[in-house]
Amino acid sequence: MLEDTTRINMLYDFYGNLLTDKQRECLELYYQDDLSLAEIADNSGISRQGVHDLIKRAVKTLEKAEEKLALVKRFMDQEKELRRLRGILAGDIGPGERREALAIVERLLD
């Protein structure tokens, strides 16, 4: 569940502007403020099922955007490369490590 919540929050950070105001509000209340569907329904004046459907559609919109644009995947790949680069630079750098560090920088700049 935590991985799912983290992923949806990351998708929201990248693509949240593609959602309606109501979808953004419900996603924030559910995934960031940890409110239940019933609590959100009470606050929003819609049914619990309505909130569930709204959140489900919003997540589907975020997932579709990621399928097309892959910004989250690219971000995660870059973060992994940067961690590797930090590890290389933190140690003793020989010619092999220098070449690897340069290759990482080149990939990140592309």
TrEMBL record:
> What InterPro entries is this protein classified in?
RNA_pol_sigma_r3/r4-like, UPF0122, UPF0122_fam_protein, WH-like_DNA-bd_sf
Which superkingdom does the taxonomy of this entry point to?
A: Bacteria
Annotated coiled-coil positions are none
One of this protein's Pfam families, by short name?
UPF0122
Under the heading NCBIfam families, the entry gives: PRK00118.2-2, YlxM
Q: What does this protein do?
A: Might take part in the signal recognition particle (SRP) pathway. This is inferred from the conservation of its genetic proximity to ftsY/ffh. May be a regulatory protein.
Its family? Belongs to the UPF0122 family.
Q: What is this protein called?
A: UPF0122 protein DealDRAFT_1974
**Species this chain originates from:** Dethiobacter alkaliphilus AHT 1
